[in-house]
Amino acid sequence: MTLGLEPWQWLLGALIAVISGVAKTGVPGMGIVMIPMMPLIFPGNESVGALLPILVFSDIFAVAWYKHHARWDILWKLYPTVLLGIGFGYWLLDDLARRAADKNALNPWIGGIVLAMVGVALLRRQFGERFQPHSPLGTQLTGAAAGVSTTLANAGGPVMSLYFRSANLPKDQFIGTGAWYFFTLNLFKVPLYAILTHRNPGFPFYTSRSLTFDILMVPAILVGAYLGKWVFVKVSQKAFDTLVMVLAAAFGLKLVLGI
Fold first, then answer.
1. Residue 36: other Cβ atoms inside 10 A
2. Which of 51, 133, 165, 251 is the most buried (most CB within 10 A)?
3. Whole-model pTM?
4. Which of 23, 47, 36, 144 lies closest to 88, judged by CA?
5. Is 34 in contact with 243 (CB distance < 8 Å)?
6. In sequence order, which residues have a C-beta less than 8 Å from that of residue 246 and are 6 or more positions away?
7. CA dist 8 to 143, 194, 195, 218, 259, Å?
8. How far is residue 64's CA from residue 187's CA, in Å, rounded to a whole number?
9. Which is nearest to 69 in space by CA: 187, 169, 161, 139?
């Protein structure tokens, strides 16, 4: 079963699935690398839709392992503006689909969001506590930004990591709160992408080949989920973060420049 994909695309897809598992269960910052990789396998909207089921399945492991460590008081503060951000992202995706004549029209947006998230991560590394959303307004802006970025490109992770870090959460609460956050919102996006596919059949988020691809990636997700805990203990966090940022920036530039 080729689904019209080259062997290197299958290998890249398996790598994305492994990274998703690792990111959800042990190294949250790693998730940003997946986003600009998927458009190398599927065009534009289809790449966003193909990644979402992989994320949801990975979220299940994170929730199962860290379900008792979530800080729901933090999540309830974020949900209202996150949902508003998702609503705006939905409108923008629908508008882009109606205006675009190229299935890859979303790629520069995905690349731009990835580069912006890399910038957020670098500013956080440079300024530490001085670059953290402490105020109520900062919380609401964080929620809105996360909602828009997660809808457009499944790229809400860096923004939310910034917010959770500002709350000084212990490691288990950091992962547990993030697990529930991403699981609930990714599930919420599943029917939204289905509606967008129905409204804009020429620019689908879900196709039979992308969903088949997702099913075939389940074993790789399992490997990544268990690998995440091992990587978290064994690999230097600083070296790992640097590698993630370099790869994400490289893939993001490729999408923006169309090369």
1. 27
2. 51
3. 0.81
4. 144
5. no
6. none
7. 37, 28, 31, 18, 17
8. 15
9. 169
How many angstroms separate the CA atoms of 63 and 111, rounded?
A: 29
Helices assigned H by DSSP within 68-106:
72-99
On whether the CB atoms of residues 22 and 30 are closer than 8 A, the answer is yes
CA–CA separation, 93 and 236 (whole Å): 38
Amino acid at 114: V
- Cβ 19 vs Cβ 30: under 8 Å: yes
Could you tell me if 155 and 251 are in contact, meaning their C-beta atoms sit under 8 angstroms apart? Answer: no
Nearest-CA neighbor of 93 among 74, 107, 106, 102? 106
pLDDT at residue 58 is higher than 70: yes
Kindly report, residue by residue over 2-13, the tens digit of the pLDDT: 788 999 999 999
- Percentage of the chain beyond pLDDT 70 is 69
Q: For residue 93, how many other CB atoms are within 10 A of its CB? A: 24
Residue 180 · residue 74 · CB < 8 Å: no
Looking at per-residue pLDDT, the higher value among 35 and 238 belongs to 35
Q: How many degrees, rounded to 5, is the angle at CA 51 between CA 167 and CA 231?
A: 55
Q: How many CB atoms lie within 10 A of CB 194?
A: 14
Q: Which residues are within 8 A (CB) of 199 and not within 5 positions of it... i.e. 6 or more apart?
A: 94, 97
How big is the CA angle at 236 (ends 217 and 35), to the nearest 5 degrees?
35
Residue that has been written with the tokens 């042990």 in this structure: 26
Range 232-238 contact pairs with CB under 8 angstroms and sequence separation of 24 or more: 232/26, 232/27, 235/27
Span of 44-48, 157-161, 174-178, 246-250 with lowest mean pLDDT: 246-250
